[in-house]
């Protein structure tokens, strides 16, 4: 078995191996394999980066929504200031409303979620508005 076919066999058996060496690298199958793996890694990296951004945004919204209530509940017993009831009510609604923002956040940032949500909505709404015949 020559050296090139041995490398191709290794790459087929273990796709995570990238063989970069001597002048035989200039052969077309090795270059194609390396480029394919590079594109696959780049696509995976982009997907992971998108996921990290979405999760960070979700965490930031959660933090911004719950922080006022947490601060209010920690400081209310310490300071002797009576706050109006609407302040408590507003912070509670803001905190619990953060859960509703997740679907809006995912819809605006995740293409797959958006596509699936549209398909589900169209399927559901098309069944709701059909006439009884």
Automatic annotation (TrEMBL):
PROSITE patterns: G_PROTEIN_RECEP_F1_2. The chain crosses the membrane at residues 59-79, 85-108. GO terms for cellular component: membrane. It is found in: Membrane. Keywords: G-protein coupled receptor, Membrane, Receptor, Sensory transduction, Transducer, Transmembrane, Transmembrane helix, Vision. Residues 1-106 form the G-protein coupled receptors family 1 profile domain. One of its GO terms (biological process) is visual perception. Its main location: membrane. InterPro entries: GPCR_opsins, GPCR_Rhodpsn, GPCR_Rhodpsn_7TM. The keyword Ion transport does not apply. One of its GO terms (molecular function) is G protein-coupled receptor activity. It is a multi-pass membrane protein. It comes from the Eukaryota. This is G-protein coupled receptors family 1 profile domain-containing protein. The gene is RvY_04534-1.
């Amino acid at each position: 078995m020559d050296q090139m076919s041995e490398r191709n066999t290794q790459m087929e058996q273990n796709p995570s191996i990238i063989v970069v060496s001597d002048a035989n690298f200039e052969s077309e199958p090795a270059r194609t394999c390396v480029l394919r793996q590079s594109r696959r890694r780049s696509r995976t990296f982009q997907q992971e980066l998108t996921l990290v951004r979405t999760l960070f945004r979700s965490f930031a919204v959660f933090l911004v929504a719950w922080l006022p209530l947490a601060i209010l509940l920690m400081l209310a017993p310490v300071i002797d200031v009576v706050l109006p009831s609407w302040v408590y009510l507003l912070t509670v609604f803001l905190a619990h409303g953060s859960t509703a923002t997740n679907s809006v956040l995912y819809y605006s940032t995740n293409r797959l979620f958006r596509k699936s949500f549209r398909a589900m909505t169209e399927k559901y709404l098309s069944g709701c508005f059909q006439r009884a015949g």
